[in-house]
Amino acid sequence: MRHILVGFAAFTRSELANLFQYRVMMFLYALWDVVNPIIYLIVWSLVAGERQISGFSRDDFIMYYLVFMVVSHLALAIEVYTFGPLIERGQLSPRLLRPIHPWWHAAAVNISYKVVNLIMLIPVWIGLFLVLRPAFPGDWITVALFLPALAAAIVLSFFIGSLFAMLAFWTTRSFSFWQIWTSLLFLMGGQVAPVAVLPGFVRDVAVALPARYALGFPVEVILGQLDAGELVMGFAMQAGWIALAALAFAFVWRSGIKRYSAVGA
Amino acid sequence: MTADISVRNLVKHYLVPVREGGLRASIKGVFKRRHRRVRAVDGISFEVARGEIVGFLGPNGAGKTTALKVLSGLLYPTDGEVAVLGHTPWQRKRDFLSRMTLIMGQRQQLFWDLPGIDTFLVNKAVFGLDEPTYEASFNLLSEMLELGDLLYKPVRQLSLGERMKSELAAGLLHSPSVLFLDEPTLGLDVTMQQRIRQFIKDYNAATGATILLTSHYMADVKALAERVIVIDQGLVLYDGLLQGLVESYAPHKTITLQFEQPVEIKDLERYGEVERIDELQFRIKTAKDAAPGATARLLADLPVADLSVEDPALEDVIDQVFRTAAE
């Protein structure tokens, strides 16, 4: 276990150093992380005006998308872009030769990306908060619950992103499958609208699917929009989906690596 | 002697999609995919003893690299048994990965945008090297490969040769007992090739490591390997001493002659197959046993200014092996 921790820390240090080489690119990525939620924030706060939509006031929408901005950044899965191409191009080989599972390196890439991006995101976020000054409807309990919900969303998102990345063992077009997941996140994960605002049937589907638990759920938790029953159910769903995704991850890795052909490498 | 590498009937087949050119074939391919089975390795067996350096030879597509990838645990074989340092490679156990390395001429484990030293520090951590072990290994490799300040420049700014030296050092930092080297001198200039060759030789002498090496440069093979395994189309064609390969597949010598004055070609033809280089220079391919007698008679009967007797070039011998196999 010690060698995993030491190795993971070494990967993270190198990947951080690597990312600092690409400051402009990282700035543009961070900009996109900000722009996207701002669009929804503006649209929904205009639609809401002085009334409430499914219990959401104008301030609630602003706060929702401000928190969403941070959560969507931290729970972003990048493995289809970072790990999938290694499989396709045979570049996984050097990583398979090291006595540490290659996914530890992938996790280090994920965390480094988010740390560097967060450094650029924080000042923008503070600026927006000071300009918009929304009321925060949560309390210290919702903040305390937010942290495990966020951690679980990050883990679930990493597993799901990794599953799609590993499709590269079978197809050179794993991106096409990835689009299905991003569409699901967009519609039912709390991106285009908070899940609570979705119409009845769609909301029921969203509550059952994993997208909400990998993205919107922590935002709902911190804003105090869920009663005790919904919170328990939400955490249970997160745990369930993580367990399922972890099992699928182990199975897909084991089958996929047997098909790895190290083309050109 | 203990065998560090043991391979029994190793088979690795790939299924590759095939289709003819044109729109019609593309549309057909949407509904029905055709595949072809490529027999990259088709039942090879051999053993390599501890401390041996073995040259693994064959033309492009012979299956050398595929075999090395299976032996180093990158690929799962279709069939067969392999043991490297007592491990089944594709299980990729920590002990196995910590004691072997695969270095490929065109492949890089180095972080492209960072100085090589960053990759070294990562390897130090993941291989679990303590400070004194790391220092000792780093100093030894630095000295043997004359790394100097190379490791402190971003990898992307290094020349091919400098990068190869850094790759070798990064791959050997954990002092592996088994080395799989795939074209370690590919694309390097002659000086750098010699330096890498010397390094491999010194490393083997200093550590007693077992080395299986592929190379298209026969100079590498001649300088490093006493024993060679020749494979083509996934099959072993020859496994034995390099000298034995020359004797078995090239039972002739080449006599190169420089005359003082022009001679008749018919005077030379009785000694063997004649090739005229210019008016005064000829090359005669003669049976190995007949070479001493032929040399003596040539010197006695003809106005010879200079004469040399050589084994054929290793490239020609290997070519002869492939042609014999094809026949």
Task: From the structure above, extract its key features.
heterodimer; A: 265 residues; mainly alpha; 0% strand; B: 327 residues; alpha/beta; Rossmann fold; Alpha-Beta Plaits; 2 domains; 6-stranded mixed beta sheet; 4-stranded antiparallel beta sheet; 12 helices; 13 strands
SSE layout and pairing:
The complex is a heterodimer of chains A (265) and B (327).
Chain A: H1 2-19, H2 23-48, H3 58-74, H4 79-82, H5 84-88, H6 93-96, H7 102-132, H8 140-166, H9 174-188, H10 200-208, H11 211-214, H12 217-222, H13 228-259
Chain B: E1 3-18, H1 23-31, E2 34-49, E3 53-57, H2 64-71, E4 79-84, H3 94-99, E5 100-104, H4 116-126, H5 131-145, H6 160-172, E6 178-182, H7 190-207, E7 210-214, H8 218-224, E8 227-232, E9 235-241, H9 242-249, E10 252-259, H10 266-269, E11 273-276, E12 281-287, H11 291-301, E13 304-310, H12 314-326
Parallel strand pairs in B: 3-7, 3-8, 5-6, 6-7
Antiparallel strand pairs in B: 1-2, 1-4, 8-9, 10-12, 10-13, 11-12
Helix pairs in contact in B: 5-6
